[in-house]
């Protein structure tokens, strides 16, 4: 970083806004992260299923972490900036000032988070229309998408928010506006979360049918009538004000943004796999699925022609990789679920104390504890009598049933660390079984998938990775850089700078393979049985609901 005699290196800044923190990285032209910083951001939960944030708080964190990663670097070597973020909804007035998305009138809380489920009634009514645009979201719109949230605002905050609103941004688009002063939207956000189609644009009949005809009247100015492909340069680059805020030179190229999961997909799915003896070698990129595993998990598969998968979002044209159709499966709570199960257990204080004494994270300690209690068995076999259905926050894919609840079968009166370790293991297995459920739906519809590419926080947990390999029966590829989402954001900046001819070229050069985890095929019979039980659990849940509702 301080060696001034070396030949100039091209650097790109990737900025990632996750659910609970903002991260930035300085990434070189070969995909190596040379500096990294993060900062927490605030989440408000004023009532159950309502999650809110502040766009001012988020932008301040973006500026803070960016200044840290570029400190001491020759600014002339920094060529471009790329943003990714959660698909949260940002509301501002006609002067771009924040507007409250809450009944309390707290204007600084102007972001409805992606995981907010306040608009259940609205999404049910939208789905009841069976409008043709719903075929591009797996047939059923999710409460986590933007149309139901917009309808909720109109119905619940009409005077204080809806009528005063000047712009509704997806968070990734808010960030590119903040950096450039240009209100252009990314094709990724509007296609994946707003029902825009890459060939036909907005469908007037849909917005009128669901009661949001107001948006049609002003030619969609509030939600975006200028759409750019991800990685395309926005406006004239950084404005003087944004450059000062971020600690970067004015005019540096800023890319049209991506949703965070899609940036993770970009950072891993195109990597060169030669020499790793993988089934996807010499196969098209369509044989791969990128899994971005954090608070929630997303499963990104691409195809050359549109594939309609029931219960899986898409197909979206050019939403992640230009020229290819994207299908996106997902699990609404994965990292959040593991934390919930572990921290809510009566033995958690004991775990916390022992992990601290051994100077390990609680999850490293749990993995070691499982190795101690397994005796002669493979670790995964410890849950022969313990089964979890993981939809504690509803099912996003492939059942698209928001009302499903979590289930645990096989509990005893034991309350110790052994039992905590077992429920932790069973929860991880349930998440992997859910991934298998999604992959099977995609394959049944026409995808041909043979390799998983994992990134995100959970991909750092070796037990999580091995369970996904064993339960799906597919090899798992981990990227060389654990911060693949940030590499994906930096790839956008690299494309906006003009240093690469295409996103595909940048993906191949900047995405690097680290480790490959192979499935243990000797365990296949056990996990086939676990999967059979897994599917029975949801059958039983639906049966008892039918009984109770009859």
Describe the protein in words.
The protein is α/β, with parallel strands linked by helices and 550 residues long. The protein folds into 2 domains: 11-256, ATPase, nucleotide binding domain (Nucleotidyltransferase, domain 5); 279-474 and 520-549, Nucleotidyltransferase, domain 5 (2-Layer Sandwich), CATH 3.30.420.40. The chain is 37% helix and 18% strand. The protein has helices spanning 55-70, 120-128, 146-156, 158-162, 171-180, 187-193, 204-209, 214-217, 240-246, 260-268, 335-343, 348-357, 362-373, 417-445, 462-472, 484-497, 503-510, 524-549; strands spanning 11-17, 21-28, 33-40, 52-53, 78-85, 89-93, 111-112, 165-170, 185-186, 227-228, 253-254, 258-259, 288-293, 297-303, 313-317, 325-331, 387-389, 407-409, 451-455, 476-479, 513-517. It has a 7-stranded mixed β-sheet with strand order 15-16-14-13-19-20-21, with helices on both faces. Strands 1, 2, 3, 5, 11 and 12 form a 6-stranded mixed β-sheet that branches. A 4-stranded antiparallel β-sheet has the order 4-7-6-8. The model is unreliable at 1-5 (pLDDT under 50). Belongs to the FGGY kinase family. GO terms for molecular function: D-ribulokinase activity. InterPro entries: ATPase_NBD, Carb_kinase_FGGY, FGGY_C, FGGY_N, FGGY_RbtK-like. Keywords: Kinase, Transferase.
């Amino acid at each position: 970083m301080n060696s001034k005699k070396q030949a100039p290196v091209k650097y790109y800044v990737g900025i990632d806004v996750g659910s609970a923190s903002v991260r930035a990285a300085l990434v070189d032209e070969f995909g190596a992260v040379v500096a990294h910083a993060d900062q927490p951001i605030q989440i408000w939960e004023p009532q159950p299923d309502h999650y809110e944030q502040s766009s001012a708080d988020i932008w301040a964190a973006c500026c803070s972490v960016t200044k840290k990663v570029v400190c001491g670097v020759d600014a002339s070597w920094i060529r471009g900036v790329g943003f990714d973020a959660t698909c949260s909804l940002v509301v501002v007035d006609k002067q771009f000032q924040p507007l409250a998305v809450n009944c309390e009138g707290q204007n600084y809380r102007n972001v409805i988070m992606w995981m907010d489920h306040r608009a259940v009634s609205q999404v049910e009514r939208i789905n009841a229309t069976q409008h043709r645009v719903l075929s591009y979201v797996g047939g059923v719109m999710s409460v986590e998408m933007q149309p139901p949230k917009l309808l909720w605002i109109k119905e619940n905050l009409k005077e204080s928010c809806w009528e005063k609103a000047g712009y509704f941004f997806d968070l990734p688009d808010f960030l590119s506006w903040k950096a450039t002063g240009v209100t252009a939207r990314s094709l990724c956000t509007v296609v994946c979360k707003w029902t825009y189609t890459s060939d036909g644009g907005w469908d007037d009949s849909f917005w009128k049918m669901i009661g949001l005809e107001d948006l049609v009247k002003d030619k969609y100015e509030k939600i975006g009538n200028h759409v750019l492909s991800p990685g395309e340069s926005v406006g004239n680059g950084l404005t003087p004000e944004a450059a000062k805020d971020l600690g970067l030179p004015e005019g540096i190229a800023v890319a049209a943004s991506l949703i965070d999961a899609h940036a993770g997909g970009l950072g891993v799915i195109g990597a060169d796999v030669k020499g790793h003896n993988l089934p996807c070698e010499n196969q098209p990129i369509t044989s791969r699925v990128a899994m971005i595993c954090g608070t929630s998990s997303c499963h990104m598969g691409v195809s050359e022609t549109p594939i309609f998968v029931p219960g899986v979002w898409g197909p979206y044209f050019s939403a992640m990789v230009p020229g290819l159709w994207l299908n996106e499966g997902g699990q609404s709570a994965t990292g959040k679920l593991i934390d919930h199960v572990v921290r809510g257990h009566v033995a958690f204080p004991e775990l916390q104390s022992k992990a601290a004494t051994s100077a390990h994270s609680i999850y490293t300690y749990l993995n070691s504890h499982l190795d101690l209690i397994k005796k002669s068995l493979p670790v995964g076999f410890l849950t022969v009598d313990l089964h979890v259905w993981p939809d504690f926050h509803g099912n996003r894919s492939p059942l698209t049933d928001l009302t499903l609840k979590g289930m645990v079968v096989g509990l005893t009166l034991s309350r110790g660390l052994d039992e905590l370790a077992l429920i932790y293991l069973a929860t991880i297995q349930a998440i992997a079984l859910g991934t298998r459920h999604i992959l099977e739906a995609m394959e049944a519809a026409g995808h041909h998938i043979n390799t998983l590419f994992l990134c995100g926080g959970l991909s750092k947990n070796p037990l999580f990775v091995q369970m996904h390999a064993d339960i799906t029966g597919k090899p798992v590829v981990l990227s060389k850089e654990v911060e693949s989402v940030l590499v994906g954001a930096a790839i956008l900046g690299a494309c906006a700078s003009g240093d690469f001819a295409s996103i595909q070229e940048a993906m191949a050069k900047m995405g690097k393979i680290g480790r490959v985890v192979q499935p243990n095929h000797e365990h296949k019979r056990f996990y086939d049985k676990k999967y059979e039980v897994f599917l029975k659990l949801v059958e039983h849940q639906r049966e008892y609901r039918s009984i109770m509702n009859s």
